[in-house]
């Protein structure tokens, strides 16, 4: 019987080469994200000193190939440390992603609201009922202009103004509710 060393089911051989490669690429991606963080967030990330030094070195390099090589070296330095050394940085980046997700969702809601009030007059009345402090006359004027711009293939100046007005009104009401 011809058996190889991998046929022993009781022996732990560790991660496969494929898994090791995946892990190394994940660290490389994380190193890239860290290098793109603003200096203020990087200072709060509580990173090991050698990692911070290599990030600073990476930021000074402008040549593409040299930068790529330095990024690989940064990842190598990061792999020397335990995962716990980067927990604060991961939490910081996770909060940032969550905040970006919330802001994007709010922006999409405002865009949908803008589309509804331009398309339907009853949606405008619902908005006025919801936000009684809104400048009705100015908003109606902007809606008329936006419809004319859309139908006449003109630049969407009023369309953008409506978005800014909605953003301001909803932010003001949200701040009053929070305060």
Q: Could you say which overall geometry the principal axes of the C-alpha atoms support?
A: elongated
The gyration radius over C-alpha positions equals 27 Å
Low-confidence stretches: none
Task: Give the N-to-C terminal Cα separation.
Answer: 78 Å
What is the average per-residue confidence, as pLDDT, rounded to a whole number? 85
Main sheet, how many strands, which sense, barrel? none
Count of β-strands = 0
Helicity, in percent? over 70%
How much strand content do the residues show?
Answer: under 5%
**In sequence order, what are the helices and strands, one letter per element?**
HHHHHHHH
Structural class: mainly alpha
SS summary, helix count? 8
Description:
This protein has helices spanning 17-36, 39-44, 49-60, 64-79, 87-119, 121-130, 136-151, 157-178. It is mostly helical. α5 (87-119) packs across α8. The radius of gyration is 27 Å and the shape is elongated.
Topology:
Elements: H1 17-36, H2 39-44, H3 49-60, H4 64-79, H5 87-119, H6 121-130, H7 136-151, H8 157-178
Helix pairs in contact: 1-4, 3-4, 5-6, 5-8, 7-8
Comma- or semicolon-separated keywords:
179 residues, mainly alpha, 8 helices, elongated
Summarize the structure.
This protein is mostly helical and 179 residues long. It has 8 helices and no strands.
